[in-house]
Amino acid sequence: MKMKNGSLITEFLLIGLSQDPTVKIFLFVLFLIVYMLTLIGNITLIIACIFDIRLHMPMYFFLGNLSLVDMCLASVIVPNLLAQLIVRSKISFIGCAAQMCILLFFGGTECALLAVMAYDRYVAITFPLHYTVIMRIAICIALSSCCCLCGSVIALSSTFVTLRLPLCGSTINHFFCEPPVLLKLACVDTSVTETILFCSGIFILLIPSSFIIISYIRIIITIVQIRSSEARFKVFSTCASHLIVVTIFYSTAISMYMKPVSKNSENRDKMISVFYSVTPPMLNPIIYSLRNKDVKMALQNVFLRAHLKCASYFSSAAIKKMSM
Predict the structure, then answer these.
(1) Beta-carbon contacts of residue 126 (< 8 Å; ≥ 6 apart)
(2) CA–CA gap between residue 138 and residue 230 (Å, rounded)
(3) C-alpha to C-alpha distances, 143 to 26, 103, 109, 134, 231, nearest whole angstrom
(4) Percentage of residues in the chain with pLDDT exceeding 90?
(5) Which SS3 state, helix, strand or coil, does residue 26 take?
(6) The predicted structure's pLDDT at residue 286
(7) What are phi and psi of 274, to 5 degrees?
(8) How many Å apart are CA 235 and CA 121, to the nearest integer?
(9) What is the pTM of this model?
(10) 167 three-state secondary structure
(11) Cα–Cα dist 265/270, whole Å
């Protein structure tokens, strides 16, 4: 990547979230806790979805995929953010490109995956008798593959159109590399690139979110027709977790990517980026586990098995030590 004056950019300086030493310490502890909760929550949820036979259903297949994507998305951002809060952080041009591409891949995949999960709930509630036929394992795998394909297309195209622009600086007032932030460093008119990115946002943000809204309108119509109030509440509660996740993720992502680039909104952009890249991966397993009885029972079984295995291991170790 060359600057306007012809010099070659080999690395970028990331300003990070704050330059105040006291604030940095607070943020380091906060994000370290958030990252640990993200890893523990999502890994536990994945293990539960794999090993508990009651969760071998399409809904939990997609939930396991979501946990994997969330964990990877957080791992692209948070470790580098923690390093920035300790030392002055620089990232190479290739590292910046790779981070942007991987971030967009997992972000785009999650956008598509949330739409697929809405379709899964729509089929389960509207066509309960045909649910297992419509959402058979081959279809679930195909839908997950399509989500990854959408993420790949968005990641490669957005990264290419962003990094082809000549830049007037190498200091990024942000805590990771993403298109709206790098466009602020461009030396040339970015209207064409912004239009391309906006179209990409329509494809991966507005279309899936519109699909989710239509799915839930039809779900609500079906729920209203259920006579039993207890049954209505039970059916709606299965969708509430997904609605919460969708609202948090899409509202912040749309506010970041579906707006004109402004050079005067760095601090606001940082906060928005935290809410869609760091917060949802931590909250998703908590939200799903708290509001879903099957998941809670599966997690209890996972912890019980782990406790029994640990107790058995230490007991056998103690017996061997005594026999010696």
Answers:
(1) 218, 219, 222
(2) 33
(3) 41, 20, 11, 12, 29
(4) 34
(5) helix
(6) 81
(7) -60, -40
(8) 10
(9) 0.86
(10) strand
(11) 9
Instruction: Give residue for tokens 């509630």.
Output: 125
Which residue bears the tokens 């997950």? 144
In 147-195 the beta strands, taken as DSSP E runs, fall at: 171-172
pLDDT per position as a tens digit, 218-256:
888 888 887 777 777 777 777 777 788 888 888 888 888
Residue of higher predicted confidence among 96 and 297: 96
- Token output for 226: 């259920």
**Tokens encoding 1:** 């990547």
Instruction: Look at residue 35 in the predicted model and tell me its pLDDT.
Output: 94
Secondary-structure percent of the chain, ordered helix, strand, coil, rounded to 5: 80, 5, 15
- Biggest CA–CA distance in the chain, Å, is 79
Check residues 245 and 3 and name the one with the higher pLDDT.
245
Nearest to 103 by CA among 181, 32, 177: 177
The residue to which tokens 């010099």 are assigned: 7
Quote the CA–CA distance of 262 and 222 in Å, as a whole number.
Answer: 43
Residue with tokens 């259903």: 57
C-alpha angle 254-107-48 in degrees, rounded to nearest 5 = 125
Q: What is the dihedral angle through the alpha carbons of 282, 287, 293, 295, rounded to the nearest 10 degrees? A: -20
- The mean pLDDT of 104-109, rounded to a whole number, is 95
